[in-house]
Specification:
Elements lengths: L6 H5 L1 H7 L27 E7 L4 E6 L4 E6 L6 E7 L4 E6 L5 E5 L5 E6 L5 E6 L9 E4 L5 E6 L4 E6 L4 E7 L4 E7 L11 E6 L4 E6 L11 E4 L6 E5 L5 E7 L16 E7 L20 E3 L13 E3 L4 E6 L4 E6 L9 E4 L4 E6 L4 E6 L4 E6 L5 E7 L8 H9 L32 E3 L6 E3 L21 H12 L15 E7 L2 E7 L1 H12 L19 H13 L18 H9 L46 H6 L22 H13 L1
Antiparallel strand pairs: 1-2, 2-3, 3-4, 5-6, 6-7, 7-8, 9-10, 10-11, 11-12, 13-14, 14-15, 15-16, 17-18, 18-19, 19-20, 21-22, 22-23, 23-24, 25-26, 26-27, 27-28, 29-30, 31-32
Length: 671
C-alpha cells in the first residue's frame, strides 16, 4: 500500500507520457470498463468446501458463488442431490455437527449458519453467533458439538463460538489470514495430554498449535512452525507415524536467478510428533531448509496446488491437485508417500472429504461437479454429480480455468530446480501469498499484488510497465513459460487444450496462442474485489468516523490513490456517489504514474501505486512487506515530506493525530 500527497503527481506526468504507460492495445472489440465489475454471481456454483456427516449419512457442499449449501445423499448409485438451501453470502467453510446437519461459515455475512433437516422432510437454514464478524475462511467443530472454531482473517485469529446459545466466547490472535484448521483429540501424540487446535496462518506462513481447555477456550500457541510458503492444508496423524503433515510449496525461497521460476513445486512437509522435546514443543521441527519435503510435482503424474487433504478410517490420504485436476491417494503410514495412485477428477478440485464406505469426494470448483472416487480394488471414479452450471463457453470463463491450471504453461517441467505451478500459486483465490517474489534474474524482490479488482487499475506490476490488461496477460505467459533458451522467438506461442465440462460430460477444446491470452485477460479484468467484513451488508454510506477518514484521505492521499473509476480513463467519481462506489469496490484508488515514496525503488522514477481496494486484507504492506498492519502504515506515513512512506518517518512525531489515525483506519477498513 502507498499513500501519497498530491504534490508528487505533477512531477512525474511528463515522464509517464514519455515512457508510454498509457499506450493501448486491442481489447477484442470491448469498450473499456468505466467501473470494476463487482458481482460474483454469474450462474456458476463453484463448490469450495465439503463436510460428510456420518450421523445422518449426508454430504454438505458449500456452493460459494450461488450463496447456497447443497445437500447430497451419497449412498445411491448415482448419488442424489436432495436440496439446495439458501445459506448466506459466499459460503466458504462447512463442518459436520455431531447430531446431524452442518455448520457453515461465510465470507460476506456475519455469524454462522446451521443447516438441519425440518419436520417436512426438507432442510432449513438458521443464523447463529451474530457477534461473529463476516470473513470466515475455516471452520472446525469439537467432537461433542459444544464449540465451533472459526478462522477469521478480519480478527487475525480464531473465534470460539458456544453452539448451545451462539455466544462468542473468545477471540485469540494466531497470525495474518488464518485459514485451514485441524482438531487433534487428546493423547493422540506422544507427550500430548489435552486436545489441540492446529491453525494455518496463510499470509504469515505459520502453523500454530493451541491447547484446548475443557471450557472450549484456546490457550496461546505452544509451538509455532514457520514455513517459506503458505500452508494450504494440513493433517494430524497418530498411530505408526504420529505428526503434522503440511501441504504447501517448496520450503525455500522462490528464485529466478536462471530465468525460469524455481522453488514453487507442490509437496508435503512431515514433522514427527515426539514426547521428549523441550520447551513444550510437540513436533520435531528442524527448521526451514532442513525439513524433509515430499515433492508431488516431480512425480510421473504431477499433483499441483495441494489445496485440500482428507484422511479416511484406513489411514489413507486423499490430496487434491487443484492445478492438475486430479486426486492423489497415498498411505499415511509412509513418510515419503511412495505408493501413490493419481485419479483424474473435475476442474480445479478445491476440497475433498472421506465417506464411510471406502470413497472420497472432491468438490470441483470450476466444473460445478462432485467427483466420487472409490479406493476399493483399483481406485477410480465411480460417479460425477453436477451441482451447478458446468459449461464454460465464454473467453472469461475459460480464462478462469487457465488461471487456476498448470495448463496455462503446459510445456513447463519440474526437472531439477524447475517448477510446475499455476497463477494461483502466488495469487491464491486471485489474491496474494505474503511472499517476496523475484523479477527475472532476481533483479529485485517484491510482494505479490492482488488480482482482485484489477480490471480498472492499469498500468500493471510494481513497475507500471504493462499498459493494459491484454499486455499484462501476454506478459504473464511469456515470463512464466519455460524454454526461452531453446527457442527465444516462439517458446511462449503454443496452443492450450482445456477439458471443458458440461451436463453430458467433458470435451476437449483447443485455444490458440492469441485466444489463450485474450481469455486470461477477459477473466482477470472481471475478478471482483473482496467485500469488506467491516461494513454492514447493503451499506451505501460510510459510518461517520469512516466519512471523516474519507475527508482526510481526499486532502492528503488522493494524489496517488485517486478517486477515479478507471485509471486508464481518468473518470473521476462525483462526490455525490463516491461513498456508494467506494463500498462497492468501484473506485480505482490508484493512478498511472510512478512515484518514489521512500520504499525500495524497483523501476525508473519509482513504483506504480497499488490500488487500495480491499486494503484491510492486503498485509504485509509496501513492496518489501515491511509493515504488518495498517496502523504501522499510518505511523510511517507523512504526506508533508517527499518520502511519504519512508521507515524514517516513524522516528518522528506522527503526521496524523490519534483521532485522524482512527478515522483513516475506519475508512481504509471499509474499502
Amino acid at each position: 500500500m502507498v499513500l501519497a500527497g498530491r504534490r508528487i503527481a505533477a512531477l512525474v506526468a511528463a515522464i509517464v507520457l514519455a515512457v508510454g504507460l498509457r499506450a493501448r492495445s486491442p481489447r477484442a472489440d470491448e469498450p473499456a470498463l468505466a467501473f470494476q465489475p463487482n458481482d460474483y454471481h454469474d450462474g456458476h456454483a463453484r463448490p469450495r468446501a465439503l463436510a460428510f456427516n456420518p450421523r445422518d449419512g449426508l454430504l454438505y457442499v458449500a456452493l460459494s458463488t450461488a450463496d447456497q449449501v447443497a445437500v447430497v445423499d451419497p449412498a445411491p448409485t448415482p448419488p442424489r442431490l436432495l436440496a439446495k438451501v439458501d445459506a448466506c453470502r459466499l459460503p466458504d467453510a462447512v463442518a459436520a455437527l455431531p447430531l446431524g446437519g452442518a455448520l457453515v461459515g461465510c465470507r460476506f455475512d456475519p455469524g454462522l449458519t446451521r443447516i438441519a433437516g425440518d419436520a417436512a422432510g426438507g432442510f432449513r437454514a438458521a443464523r447463529i453467533a451474530a457477534g461473529l464478524p463476516a470473513g470466515a475462511r475455516g471452520l472446525a467443530v469439537a467432537d461433542d458439538g459444544r464449540f465451533a472454531y472459526v478462522a477469521s482473517p478480519p480478527l487475525r485469529g480464531v473465534a470460539v463460538v458456544a453452539l448451545g446459545d451462539g455466544r462468542l466466547l473468545q477471540t485469540i490472535a494466531t497470525g495474518i489470514s488464518p485459514r485451514a484448521m485441524r482438531l487433534l483429540p487428546k493423547r493422540t501424540w506422544p507427550g500430548q495430554r489435552g486436545a489441540l487446535l492446529a491453525v494455518s496462518n496463510f499470509i504469515d506462513h505459520t502453523v500454530t498449535l493451541h491447547p484446548l481447555g475443557d471450557d472450549g477456550r484456546l490457550a496461546p500457541a505452544v509451538q509455532t512452525i514457520r514455513t517459506e510458503a503458505p500452508v494450504l492444508d494440513l493433517a494430524l496423524t497418530g498411530g505408526e507415524l504420529p505428526g503434522a503433515w503440511l501441504f504447501t510449496h517448496e520450503d525455500r525461497a522462490v528464485s529466478r536467478a536462471r530465468g525460469p521460476v524455481e522453488g514453487l513445486d507442490s509437496g508435503v512437509i512431515r514433522l514427527a510428533a515426539r514426547g521428549d522435546l523441550s520447551g513444550g514443543r510437540l513436533v520435531d521441527d528442524p527448521g526451514p531448509g532442513r525439513r524433509s519435503f515430499v515433492n508431488l510435482g516431480e512425480r510421473p503424474s504431477p499433483v499441483i496446488e495441494l489445496d485440500a487433504v482428507a484422511l479416511d478410517g484406513h489411514g489413507r490420504f486423499a490430496v487434491v491437485g487443484a492445478g492438475s485436476d486430479n486426486l492423489c491417494l497415498a498411505p499415511a503410514r509412509q513418510a515419503n508417500l511412495r505408493d501413490t495412485v493419481v485419479v483424474p477428477v473435475g476442474a480445479n478440485p478445491s476440497a475433498v472429504v472421506a465417506l464411510s464406505d471406502d470413497r472420497f469426494v472432491t468438490a470441483d470448483r470450476l466444473s460445478d461437479t462432485l467427483t466420487f472416487v472409490s479406493t476399493a480394488g483399483a481406485p477410480g471414479v465411480t460417479a460425477t454429480l453436477v451441482i451447478g452450471a458446468p459449461a464454460r463457453p465464454s473467453p472469461a470463463e475459460r480464462g478462469e480455468l487457465l488461471f487456476y491450471s498448470r495448463d496455462l504453461v503446459r510445456n513447463n517441467v519440474a526437472t531439477g530446480p524447475l517448477s510446475l505451478y499455476t497463477c494461483a500459486a502466488c495469487h491464491d483465490d486471485g489474491h496474494i501469498d505474503g511472499r517476496l517474489h523475484p523479477a527475472k534474474q532476481n533483479r529485485f524482490f517484491s510482494t505479490t499484488l492482488t488480482c482482485r479488482g484489477i480490471g480498472t487499475t492499469a498500468p500493471y506490476l510494481r513497475l507500471g510497465n504493462q499498459a493494459t490488461i491484454d499486455v499484462f496477460a501476454d506478459n504473464i505467459v511469456s515470463t512464466h513459460a519455460q524454454g526461452a533458451e531453446r527457442d527465444p522467438a516462439h517458446f511462449a506461442d503454443y496452443p492450450v487444450t482445456l477439458r471443458l465440462h458440461g451436463a453430458e460430460g467433458a470435451r476437449a477444446v483447443t485455444l490458440q496462442p492469441r485466444e489463450v491470452r485474450q481469455a486470461l485477460a477477459r477473466y482477470m479484468e472481471r475478478i471482483p474485489p473482496e467485500r469488506s467484513p467491516f461494513v454492514e451488508a447493503g451499506a451505501r454510506a460510510l459510518t461517520p468516523e469512516a466519512h471523516r477518514g474519507l475527508v482526510l484521505f481526499r486532502d492528503r492521499c488522493a494524489g496517488c490513490h485517486q478517486m477515479i473509476g478507471n485509471s486508464d480513463l481518468g473518470n473521476h467519481v462525483p462526490e455525490a456517489t463516491a461513498e456508494a462506489r467506494l463500498l462497492a469496490g468501484q473506485v480505482a484508488l490508484t493512478s498511472p504514474r510512478r512515484r518514489n515514496v521512500g520504499t525500495p525503488v524497483l523501476g525508473e522514477g519509482g513504483n506504480n501505486p497499488p490500488s487500495l481496494r480491499g486494503v484491510w486484507d492486503n498485509a504485509p504492506y509496501f513492496n518489501d512487506g515491511s509493515a504488518r498492519s495498517l496502523e504501522e502504515v499510518l505511523r510511517r506515513t507523512d504526506p508533508h515530506v517527499e518520502a511519504v512512506h519512508s521507515p524514517a518517518n516513524a522516528a518522528r512525531p506522527p503526521a496524523f493525530s490519534a483521532d485522524e489515525q482512527a478515522a483513516l483506519l475506519a475508512f481504509l477498513r471499509s474499502l
